[in-house]
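[09:14] KT: can someone run the structure on this one? pasting the chain below
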Amino acid sequence: MFLSIVARPSLVPLTLPQVSAVLSEAMSGDMVAVWEVPMPDGIHRVEFQHGTASGKRVIIVDDKEVLRRDWMFRLVGEEVFHLGNTRCTIRVDPSGGFAYEYSLLVDGMSLPKFIEAKSKTCCTWLVQLPDNMYRVVLDKETLDVWANGEKLEVAGEFVEDGTETHFNLGSVPALIKAVTSCNKREGLIYSLIVNNKIIPPAED
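[09:31] RB: done, structure tokens below
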């Protein structure tokens, strides 16, 4: 099941959860959908413009235009772009009359399914420090650590009860500790420690 937006000539604003496409009262012209896609390097904003008269399609990622097609005779179909190495597809489907539905697929999955799958392979924390707010993401598959969209230099070491991955948030030392949960289903438990304090995981 795809989360979608139905676009009508009047572009009546719709209210949907943050993870789905949303329309803003401030939107005008051919802007029909906006999605927020969480990735290890940050949360990316994807905007889609669709001219239902001209067939124009424009994809904007983080305020940068990544695709433009003018004068498309076929008003429905798919457009492909990438967020890093991840393939994304915007689908335009008819919804009866002169209305259309817009769906975003990320890595072949609907956005909610992608977020659910990513939550199993990534850990995310929000850390407020005097100099900045940091969004720290650990990719459990690659063991890469990201902070505010930047991949960090890390140093790993084995300790008595697991492993520690050390890095800096600005000038503040931090580490991610991994210990076994003694539960095959849960696997390892990861904790972020900054200034000797355990940081709670970010809420979905």
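[09:33] KT: thanks! The chain has a mean pLDDT of 85.
[09:34] RB: yep, looked fine to me
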